[in-house]
Specification:
The longest helix has 19 residues. Strands 3-4-2-1-5-6 form a six-stranded parallel sheet, sandwiched between helices. It has a domain of 175 residues: Decaprenyl diphosphate synthase-like (Undecaprenyl pyrophosphate synthetase). Helix content is 46%, strand content 14%. The protein is built from ten helices and six strands. It has 258 residues and is of the alpha/beta class.
Amino acid sequence: MNLLRYAGVYRFYENYLKNQISKSNPPVHIALILDGNRRWAKSKFIPEWMGHFAGANIVDDLLDWCVELDVKIITLYALSAENLTRPQPEVDRLFEIISSKLSELLNEPKIDQYRVHVKGLGNSSLLPTEIQEKIKKIEIKTQDYDGLFFNLALAYGGRSEILEAVKSVATEVIDGSIEIDNITNEMVENHLSTSHLSSPEPDLVIRTSGEERLSGFLLWQSAYSELVFLDVYWPDFRKIDLMRAIRTYQNRNRRYGE
């Protein structure tokens, strides 16, 4: 009875939020910092790896929610380069979960149904060969899809991304392709990992777990993004949490630094 009552209240609140979200002004690009997996596991007195496993399983639902809410681009910060300095057994378990999830995505019907264009971001050389190969396979499989752009940041670091872009521009200066005085923001952006996107700058950045920082995520691209910090661990992230964040975004007046 209590479950039925809870389900009824949840559906009521979901419909309430849906009516508060404007269909004419959805965020085109949402970036998500997936934080709180380990703390979620600790709160339930279960092994930390189970938190990462539970968090990975949110992805399938997230695809549904983004399509329903007319979000065109979603970028997930799943694994930072700094995460790789954790104890090796934990890193190995993370790699196992990521590899398993990539295998699922390769055969996930929603990828074809929604025409999801999948792209890996980050320093892939830091990842096991098996994961690199799976990322490449799903990128090739979905390269012509344009329904929803799904970017997965693995072994990613914002400073490293900017540094590599600057090196690429510097190389063009050295070989005479461009003059140093003609370097523009657009030239740098063309060398970032998000250059394949029509809207590389997130309209909205969401971080779960209650922490209020970007942790090096999309440092260049998020300069004028709206930031929303949610006090919910990633494995507990629900559709209503995404809707609440979108409602907050729509209620703000974006100033773009003015």
